[in-house]
Design goal:
It is a single chain. Helices cover about 40% and strands about 15% of the residues. It is α/β, with parallel strands linked by helices. The protein has a five-stranded mixed beta sheet. Helix 3 packs parallel to helix 4 (about 110-125). The chain is rod-shaped, with a radius of gyration of 36 Å. Residues about 40-50 have low confidence and may be disordered. InterPro entries: ExbD (IPR003400). It comes from Azoarcus indigens.
Length: about 140
């Protein structure tokens, strides 16, 4: 009898056979990889050449610093408020919307910083940043 059981129908072990499921997932993964690389075709365009090309670089940021004595600096050069206004107006004529950062010493009079900010508002500069330090 032991020999008959060896050659008879085999009983299936309990559980789910996931081999077909893994096969299907691998096929789907291969199809996804192949189609994702080829789905965005590039369009070749021969661009015309311009005689006077304008560079598309960002304008340089102007830094205004006010030290603890109340002295105003534009890009590390000492200036008076009228000089600062004339230089910024000249820069605005060349580059209409350039960024400006204002760095004020912690012990400087608040009125001096307000004067500089008021000057920037009169010139109609919109990109203004106030520089602060990291807390200790």
């Amino acid at each position: 009898m032991a020999i008959a059981a060896k050659f008879g129908p085999k009983k299936r072990a309990g559980g789910i056979n996931i081999t077909p499921f893994v096969d299907v997932l691998l096929v789907v993964l291969v199809i996804f990889i192949l189609t994702s690389n080829a789905s965005v075709p590039g369009i070749r365009v021969d661009l015309p050449k311009a005689s006077s090309a304008v560079p598309l670089e960002k304008p340089k940021t102007k830094a205004i610093t006010i030290d603890n004595a109340g002295q105003v600096f534009l890009d590390a050069y000492p200036v008076t408020l009228p000089e600062l206004e004339s230089r910024l107006r000249t820069e605005k004529a060349l580059t209409p919307d350039f960024p400006v950062i204002v760095r004020g010493d912690a012990s400087v009079q608040y009125a001096k910083v307000v004067e500089v900010l008021d000057l920037l508002r009169r010139i109609e500069l919109n990109q203004i940043g106030l520089v602060t330090g990291k807390p200790a």
